[in-house]
Every structure is written in structure tokens, then in C-alpha cells.
Amino acid sequence: xxxxLLASVLLYSLCFNLYSQMEFSGFxxxxxxxxxxxxxxxxxxxxxxxMEREFSKTLSFEGAFVIEDEExxxxxxxxxxxxxxxxxxxxxxxxxxFGLDWKFFATPDRKTITPPITTEKLxxxxxxDIGVNFSGNSxxxxxxxxxxxxxxxxKGSPVNxxxxxxxxxxxxxxxxxxxxxxxxxxxxxxQGPYLDNNNSDLLSRTGFDFxxxxxxxxxxxxxxxxxxxxxxxxxNSMATYLHLTKEISKxxxxxVRFGYYKEEKLKPEKRYTLALGKxxxxxxxxxxxxxxxxxxxxxxxNLFSMQVVVSF
Length: 312
What we know:
Layout: H1 2-21, E1 23-35, E2 40-54, E3 59-68, E4 71-74, E5 77-83, E6 87-95, H2 117-122, E7 128-138, E8 141-148, E9 152-154, E10 157-159, E11 170-180, E12 183-193, E13 202-213, E14 217-228, E15 235-247, E16 252-263, E17 269-281, E18 284-294, E19 303-311
Antiparallel strand pairs: 1-2, 1-19, 2-3, 3-4, 3-5, 5-6, 6-7, 7-8, 8-11, 9-10, 11-12, 12-13, 13-14, 14-15, 15-16, 16-17, 17-18, 18-19
């Protein structure tokens, strides 16, 4: 009994010590949407609680809990080990560093309400996965190399999941070139099996990205080619977008984005997005967005959205 009591006290002390040294932050977003020809609705997009703890100059932890659609899940949760010469080793649940949009998964970081068509069509809304990532930078070059569980499937279509469904792994790399602090170009590639209990048919993505940032202007562009093998057929597709954000004043900005998606043997889909945002404080923002959708067969589904984001 004394041993159990002592162990309980030690465990409580450890948990209290970790909690007291943990840094907490987060955000919540409130949404309104009205789709052409459909119903309007209010909703809460997500509530995220973030945690950070720096154990030493070389070892740190970050984690996130996300409540969305009445379900609790984990956001990026990892252990980061810094080595010499600006090298990092991460293990855990990682927002995968493919292209550019992975940097803007969190609602406060995205200047629009909807994601670009590359993320929507080729990464199932956003790719997070469990595994390891090795990254670093040297002058004008930076890189990420990772090995993770990879995509899964839902009725033959690739979906973002964190479990290993075929006893095989997905690997990938992104290499970035930064000729100046405002300009970066990158190339990304990933490949791995995605079908249940099938490690011979592969999913792959090849991407090119470009970004330019100045005091009041941000320009981003991505081009991604996708291939999905299966016992029945091979599906080839591509998606691209061009995004511009312009600060009108210190608290007001506008964003414009054009997106294009083409699947082999099908007509293309297009997205024209216009957003206007207002920063009421450093931690509170309101955004209005209108998206024109051009699809085949023709469907009246243009989307108007409003969003309020509160960070804490």
C-alpha cells in the first residue's frame, strides 16, 4: 500500500511539474456559410488547444488537441530534437512539409476561409501523418526528408489517415531555395502505397512551389501532379493555384486566389476566390469570402462564407 501511495505521489508530482512548465495557446473559429442552391448554416469550425514545452536548447515538445464536428482529435504533436548546424529531427504526428500550404493549416494562419484546390483535391483537405521528419537549412537551401505511415483508402480513393493500413511506409522530400529573404522556390515529392493490404500499387505527388513576401504583399503559387495506381486502373491528375494577399491598411487586407484541377479524361474544375479580412485586435479577425466554382457537369454551388477567429 505504501509503495502504491508513493508511486501515486511521484506520478502526481511529475504531471504537475510538466503542466506548470507547459505553455498553452489556441484558437476557435465561428463560421457562417451559404451555398448557392443550398441551405445556410452557422457553425463552429474547430477549437484547438496547443501546448509547448522546451526541456533544453536541443529538446522540445509541442502538441495540440482539436475539437471539430463534435469529435476530439490530435493536431501536430511531436518531439523535436535540434542538433548542430541547424538540423532538426522530429518524431510524432506531423503536418507534412509538402509544398506551401502545410504552413497554413491552422485557421489563424490562413488569410482565406477555404483551402487552395491543391489541398482540397490532392491531399484530402490537409495531410498530417505519424512518422519521422529530418530537416535543416544551410544558407540559401533548406530541406525536409520524412518517412511516415502514408495515406489510406476509402472505397479505393486516398484519404488522410494516421494508421498504417498496408504494413508499408511513405517517404518524401522537399527542397527549398531562398535566393533572398523575401523569395523562395521549392520542389516536393512523396510516394507510397495507400490501398488496404496492398503495398505494390503506389500513390505519388510531385510539386513545385513559389512564394514572395514583402511588407504588404504576399504571392504564393503551387503546381502538383498526382498519380494513384490500383489493380483496376491508374489515375493521373494535376492541380495548381495562384494566391495574392494585399494589405490595404494595418488591420484590413484582401486576398484573391485562382485554382485549377484536372483529372485525366475529365473536364477541369476551377475556383475563383475573393476574401476580405479585418483584424480587430492582434487576436481577433473577421473574414468574408466568396468563391465561384466552375465544374462539369455544371452545378450551381458558389459559396459565400464568413468567419470570426479568436486566438488565445
